[in-house]
Amino acid sequence: MANSADYGRRLIPQILDELAVAEPNRVLYSVAVSQDISQGFQTVSARTFAKAVDKTAWLLRGQIEDSPTIQSVGYIGPHDLRHVLLTYACVKINCTALFLSPKNSTEGALAVLEAAKCNIWVNPDGKSSRLVDEVLQKRPMNVLGLPSLDELLDAEATEPYPYEKAFADAIAEPFCVLHTSGSTGLPKPIVWSHGLIGTMDAVRLLPPTEGDGGMAPWSAGWDDGDRIYSSFPMSHGAGIIMNILLPSLFRLHCVMGPASVIPNLNLIDSLAEHGKIDIWSMIPSLVDELGEAPDILPKLASSKFICASGGPVSPISGSKVNSFVRVLNLTGTTEGLFIGNLWVPREDWFYFAFHPYSGFEFKEVEPGIYEHWVHRNEHAPLFQGIFHTFPDEKSINLKDLYVKHPTKANFWSYHGRNDDIVVLSNGYKISPLDTEALVTTHPAIEGCLMIGSGKPQAGLLIELKDPSSGSDELFESIWATVEKANALSLHKNQLLKDYIAFSEPNKPFIRTDKRTVKRRATLALYADYIERFYSSRLDDDAQHLATDTSSAASTTQTIRRIVESLLPDAKAVSPDEDLFRLGLDSLLVFRAIKSIRVATGLGDKLSTRHLYANPTLAKFSEAVIQLLEKVQKTAVNGASPHDTPDPVQDKLRQMMDLHKSRLSQKANPCDLMNPNIYVGMKFYIPLGESVSFEQAYARLQRGLRRTIDLIPALEGKVMPCSEHEMGYKRGDLRITLPPLPSTATADVASLDASREQPRQLRYKDLSNWLPSYEELRAAGFLSSVFKDEVFTDCPWFPPLPADVLYAQANFVKGGCILTLNVHHAAFDGVGAITALRVWAECCRYDEGDPSATCSWLDPESLNRDMLHILYELEGYAKPAHEVDPNVWGFLGFPNPADLANGHNTAQAEAAVDERFTTSALPAAPPFPRKFAWPPTPPADGRQMVSSTFLIPPQNVEKLRQTVLADPDAKGLVTSISDMVQAFFWRAAIRARYRVATELRGESFGPDDMAIVEMPIDARPYFSSLLPSSYMGSCLVTNRPYMPVAELCAPDTSLGRIAYLFREAATRITPALVHDAFTLLQSVPDYSMLTNACMGLEGMHLMMNNLMLFQTSDISFGGEFFANAGVPDTVRIQMDRFNTAFRLLLIHPIREDGGIELLLGTLPEEFNMLVADEEFSTYAEFMG
């Protein structure tokens, strides 16, 4: 082991030689023998590898003449260990390996070789690619052959090749040479010196210091012996880092895939099962693909983390991955490698944070947009690698753009480049300038911009001189010009025909006085258009092609046409030709699969893995046909007018009603069933085309102002009652409202301003760092992807007095995410939805809809005395002692008799009045009573993480049929709601049960119960005279329960559990609801509210079922909002529950009939859940 004092001052060849002596049998590399990892690895020990390096060095030394200067040795070869051997060997013989990208153009490769003065070329096995042949025709070089890997590893008899330089002498010498992407012109060589490499070694020496937020350097967790796999090619900087540098510096065991297989999900799947990978290093597009592979993700849960680098990762897909295995999002440069990256909290994986020694500065260049600079400081030799590459520079503009985290200082998210480079999601970097200049020479074109940053495919946005002149002939003429630009580009076929878009006539490109296009301003103008353009291409790529899947032959022909449209070299080739040898790459695979999904209707059943595993047209077509046959086989198997009074009387009544509406009201006993928390929801509303955020926000403001006029309580505050109030009980609350302003004292101007801008609504522009609305929609509006704190800073447990309403309009490109937080003592969930419906209708009224008057809103909708009035009126009133004590089991307060007897636990066996010994109600289930609000968080500080699962429509039907056929359901369970509740409850508890029994060694007896608490809207049971728009709380809590071991037992059927829910539902009757109201009035202390779901320990939980809720009754109007302002969906703010509550949420049924499930879990519980065979039979992970 190295002394920490040596970190940053070691030479990699010497590390190897020392290791070969100290630990000769230590395995350094394991190379897969095939894509099926179960077939094993070829392992390479330290001694064997060091001998192979020496053999390679002697071979090269015998063919390369000595030189006083270090010579470059060019190489392009298979992704195998020869890259590593060549790197080490060249250093030993006073040369340096120059790795060229095989994706270079001939001109690009020649430019790098010329700039590096490279006159030596090495061909693996004496073979060369077409690019190499073209280069050697134009640049005569000394061409050497490199033997096969097996021959090089057969080196036992080789004499050591000494390398005895001191670090101080070698610090500025090259370790190897890479090159830039050529995104700003021809590629240029980049020398990686030993000093630069040393900074990767020294990162472990970064000390804790002020400004690091207590976060560790990125090197923490890369431990001795960890197995690492990297999907990066060796010509990429990350490939060298992960396959050569870090295995040496951090003593890692490097796992390499077979040389002939392009990294893909099939390979990742097999590695996850058989490779025992601790650390994964992946290109961003592969991380994105992994996020959409719920069958593979659980297999990575045992790994330590995935290191994502090389380009932007989708925040949605990345968050799905992060739910299973932690994502380490690293950013660096080819010239400086990773500088000062820190481990951010897991939930903030998408952001970057940097150690103060990095010398970084973020300069604001536009409102909210910051440019990344690095300034040399005293720590440069060890911690600022870029100044080894540019030793004469004091400050460097990295030209990357970032935006701040909305709440956390010094957290940054990537926002693009400031030098016009287009960075695709697969890490490809494209300089658009030459392409744009050539395309703009077309006589019909006024200007064009390349688009596609963060997307899998580049596109071109063209502005015509005459927008009305579009025709097929003109398009073909323009396409011919684009093809010329493609031919001259670094990445051949970087623009596809389907990715040409034309500007809108009413949106001319924004230009300077010199008529040059303002790129960023124009791209911002077209942001929504570009998102819609890509969305349409992702869904409809195949629509322009004739598709026919009625037979095997026609399906094969359709697939051939699609592949040929993307890969012209595939035309007329044999169906057995390997498509990847013809130029198919990860970018084109992605496009092909998207197109074929549309053409065949297979959707997500077809993935990129199918094409990687079947790389010929014949094999792939057969795989698609089999999928189609499998799918087909599965398919077989509705105000009344009032009389108008005297105008004076009418005015008098209106004024009296207005003043009465401003009187404070005491929360009734039903209201106090809810704690001092906010009910939090998020509504996703699409914006209309070309609508500004300010327009939509102003509409929401005016609509809210009118809503407050109709529901004054929304402007009020919740506060404790005075103990001097008559009838006061501890825990009593009151909703107070601001009085009507007095003409004598009011400031008219400030009153007008407050009316126009209600303080209850806040504005937030999230468009710079959240995905677009279309991207959120495509991901299913996952509530588990982004923390709730992003959308609101509303406290969950507010100090009193607290606002009744706390709302925030969050805007992203193309949409608004409206967060609604309503104090639970003032409104229950149904009441909050009613208030939102009023708000939406008031927005329509502001839009000019004369019918949007909320005439359906009953004036007594917030009369908190209504429940008691109707209770007395309809004859349900009775003394509390006449109520069955088992009714306490449906409330949130303990039976006072239990507390009087000294019990702090609900006693199911408590003695009761003889009149109730034959009660039809079950005894109240026992659970530990906890009265602390907010609940005490776990002592270990752990919090749960939210995850969303989907029961697809076909699995909903499968679940239904399973339960219908179950004799334990007794033929009485026909509601899919009961079935889903049973399925979800059992799965969630069984995951916790397995953790308790299998990991902690706990046991459960027949008296250990699992309780599921289910809030039930009691309005339908209370009275037909209760206004349907009543917004105060009217809830009871149903508490089905079952022994934990029985619930989790494999022989307990879902039908048995669903029957339990059906049986429990029948207990909710008008009589029970009114008896519950009786007992609520008798509660001596309303501060003693408690629920079984409080705390993370135990086997209890609460379940909220929103399956039947639909947003169609809520419409904010169509002037500024798309879809008439009807929210696409609603999501509950879940993160707050994850600190100290066990909650399950069933989301509204999707349009396709699928059902989404949301819950919080600890990591070990999540692993048990996704491994549950029954659960995975019906549900799949979304994110």
Protein described:
Strand 16 and strand 17 form a beta hairpin. The chain is 33% helix and 17% strand. By secondary structure, it is of the alpha/beta class. It folds into 5 domains: 414 residues, Rossmann fold, CATH 3.40.50.12780; 109 residues, ANL, C-terminal domain (GMP Synthetase, Chain A, domain 3, 2-Layer Sandwich); 84 residues, ACP-like (Non-ribosomal Peptide Synthetase Peptidyl Carrier Protein, Chain A, Orthogonal Bundle); 221 residues, Chloramphenicol Acetyltransferase; 267 residues, 2-Layer Sandwich (Chloramphenicol Acetyltransferase), CATH 3.30.559.
Q: How would you summarize what this structure contains?
A:
The protein contains 37 helices and 39 strands.
Largest sheet composition? 8 strands, mixed
**Would you tell me which CATH topology of the largest domain applies?**
Rossmann fold
Number of strands: 39
Any idea how many domains? Answer: 5
Q: Which stretches are poorly predicted, pLDDT < 50 over at least 5 residues?
A: 539-543, 638-644, 906-912
* Fraction in beta strands: 15-25%
Distance between the termini: 41 Å
The helix-and-strand class reads: alpha/beta
Q: How large is the radius of gyration?
A: 34 Å
Instruction: Classify the helix fraction into a percent range.
Output: 25-40%
**CATH superfamily of the largest domain, called what?**
ANL, N-terminal domain
Note the overall shape: globular
* CATH domain class name of the largest domain: Alpha Beta
Mean pLDDT: 87
Number of helices: 37
Quaternary organisation? single chain
CATH architecture of the largest domain: 3-Layer(aba) Sandwich
